[in-house]
Amino acid sequence: MRLKTITAAVLVLLTVFPVLFMTFPVRLIHSVSVNAELRGYADAAGVLSGVLEQKGAYYHSFAADWGSRDETHEFLTGNDRQFSQTGFTDSAFRKIGTQFIILLGRDYTEHYSSYSERCGKYAEEIVRVIRKNKSEIEKLAFSGRKFMILSMPTAGRPLLLSVSPVKPANPEKQADGFIFMGHILDKEFLSELYSGYGFEAGTTRVNLTSSSVYAKEGVNSISSVEFLSSDTAKIVLTLKELSGKPMLSLLFPVKRTANTEILSIIKASFALSAFFALTLLTAAAFAFRKLVIKSAEELAVCSAKTAEGKRTQREKATYYPAEFRIIDSSLRKMADKNDSMEKNLTEISKTDKLTGIANRRFFDEIFLYEWNLSKRIKRPLGLLIVDLDDFKLYNDEYGYSAGDKCITRMADITKSALKRNTDIIARYGGEEFIILLPDTDQTGSEKIADDILAVVRDAAVPHAAAYGDKILTVSIGLCSMIPENGDTKEKLLLEADKALYEAKKKKNCAFSFNNL
């Protein structure tokens, strides 16, 4: 019969291998295509990075030119205040390619700015950011840096900025001030940059990722590409600050240029592979049904009958696989073990886990039985409720683990006072035990209560937090009655509970009873 199992396995392999055989080459082709596309986008990101660097150098050349003019030096040294009347217009700014010209004195307190209308609301913010970072800017200006990038958190825009010192007449003297020129890296600037260098126009976005200030000379960038859809990708150009942490990201959408012929081949290959796999899978499923499933169904029916207690003798069919015969044998053993476990669970369901005496559920069953029997033969039935005094204080003093051990010990002590096998003791609550005394009147019940109090005193379990003697004591409420028609067992339980309440008032190993 193992030959059929091997045959089924062969059919499955015949289904899997064609899929693998066709999938790996297809995935390889697809991987090569995607990698080539990614390299193309990486080159595009390099172009964009270079363009930004060219823009920075372009602004720097203007700033250096302005810094060498005599009228600029005269304005900063206070010799000529007519410079502010030069009257730059938006058209002049567009011609230069910048958005602002800012002149600051050496101490950065005095400044002059001229800017385009679109840059007007950011002019004061630009001056504030420059002043805040003046020490770092001066280092960059005198170290020959071409440009830098500042972030303007308040304005929410980064700034492509060039700086050049205003050269004094005496080269040995410090610069009289600084000239700043640049452009805000807003959406319009990036769209113009994007579309002006061979890319199709699209929506661009700037994400400020840091409140840091400077980028290195040249654009120190890291780029990544994300495929948004089958015909759209996104280039992410991330500029880093001097410390190397990402400062801002420029996002450019591009139209994907993947080889459509390769994509068509991939789709056709997958379709052919799916058809071939489906055909073989159908054949394998038919064989599997014939060889395995039919046998499994018969075994399942027999197993269900066994679970219901119908131990039927199953005939050994010649088409049973060897593995199913092992399952059949295992099910038989499991049925035998279940019978044994059922007996053990029945015993466990009657016993309190902590103390080992009867639990409340089992007590209720015995109580009902003894109550009905006593009512029928007109014999007395006694009931004792035993409660540990000041047990909350015991837990507070010694801890809950010690409290559990104490409850177990008190259960054994109380049980030792019962001499008859017919007397039933059970754990009724947290620190409360209940004792059922069949064929026991009021006098007999009081005698057993006295015995319990005596063994508890003799045990002298320490209780440092007790109000009286520093030992653990109990209170007992008892009642005995001959059930009559119309009486209920709850009545006997209620009277014993009332008696316990009275006994609790007395303290120190006391009992109380109610006559019925």
Automatic annotation (TrEMBL):
Residues in the signal sequence: none
GGDEF domain location: 379-516
GO molecular function: diguanylate cyclase activity
Top-level lineage group: Bacteria
Pfam families membership: CHASE4, GGDEF
Entry-linked CDD domains: GGDEF (cd01949)
InterPro entries, A to Z: CHASE4, Diguanylate_Cyclase, GGDEF_dom, Nucleotide_cyclase, Rev_trsase/Diguanyl_cyclase
UniProt-listed Enzyme Commission number(s): 2.7.7.65
Entries under SUPFAM superfamilies matching the protein: Nucleotide cyclase (SSF55073)
One GO BP: cell adhesion involved in single-species biofilm formation
Catalyzed reactions per annotation: 2 GTP = 3',3'-c-di-GMP + 2 diphosphate
PROSITE patterns recorded: GGDEF (PS50887)
GO CC annotations on file: plasma membrane
The name this protein goes by in its record: diguanylate cyclase
Annotated organism of origin: Geovibrio thiophilus
